[in-house]
Please model this.
Amino acid sequence: MAVFFTVLLGMAALALGYVLYHFSQQNFVRETQAAIDSEMRHVLSLVEAQPMAMRIQIIQQKSQEKTNTVYLYRGEKDVFLAGNIKNMPAQVERIKEGVIRFDIPATTSQTIAAKIHTFSDGTRLLIGRDIHALLQSYEQFKWLSGLILGFLLIVILVSFYISAFVVTRINRIALLAQEMMVSGDLSTRIHVDSHWDDLSRLAMVLNSLLDKIEQLMLGMKGVGDNIAHDLRTPLTRLRNHMEALKSDQTNISEDCIDALIEEADKLLVTFNALLRISSLENGQRTQPFESIDMRMVLQDVVELYEPLAEEKNITFITEYRDAPHCMADKNIMFQSLANLLDNAIKFSPVDAEVSIALYSDMDKAHIVISDKGVGVTTEDFERVFERFYRTESSRHTAGNGLGLSLVKAAIDAHQGKIWLTDNTPGLAVHILL
Model:
């Protein structure tokens, strides 16, 4: 298509150039000849039947008129008889049949187009017009025509370049998509060699999309592996208890039934947490956001977990400064902060301290919950938010690895930010709303 339109536009440019040049030249010659013919007819009507002496007098009078017309009346052997030029230059150019052109040597600003009439007595009369101004206009018109053709040539070249540029990048994206469908390799990315055009921006957006897809696919694989690993133990225990009931139906104790219920509850808690994370990630909320005071929410969470902290003789250190109210779901934020405080208590040693701080940061509410526990390595700062991911230090504690995933989904649903820092020792969780 690019080549086709380039050829088409090129032919149109050539046709336009020919039309401009040919018709402008014809019009120039036609206008000049018409003016000379008119003057020639007028003069001949005056001198045709006159004797030579009267003819010379009339032509001399005409030549003295202040016009741009030149006259030269010559007798035998080119003897000058009358006129406002003495003779014709040696260099004469033929414009067309019967029309000549020459420059007057005495001046550089006069170019004459003329016709010659021969009388019956052998004398000749040259009548011409100064076409210098007309030639200048004609030259300007030729330059303008050339400029138009030059612009058309630039349009042709630029159009071809843009067409080739667009087609190359579209084909590159299409080939990459086809390769990914055939190979199933999601790590391939579109090569971006420029940043000024829309297609390069599209390529960068598609690369970001592929990054997200690859991340989600890896996350799904990791979730599947973690579900198989973490739910295998409670399901196995549940099956063993049921096998025991089957083999000894006459001796069903309450402890056995309670154990079955406990295992089933653990499984339900895990799956409910997964469903809750999915609903938060999909933007499904039970109630709309409202303006809430995060200080009141934090105080309620701290009050709820004080008895649990007293069992390990853990002291809460609270610091509440003035912070802006936040548009949030109060129940979701309460559950998220409760999960974080529960983790802080769970992984803190006996007689430790847990800090809860709230302050304003650039017109946003900044919450920090820090402990003096086992902490998390910097390599795991991002991975702990993955579903079912548990660090080696937390493998032997109760939990299903979904707490921080739930908190991350809740903060993301509020368009907030959550990150971890090293508390040396322990861990600090930061939330910005």
Summary: The chain has a mean pLDDT of 81. The longest strand covers residues 111-118.
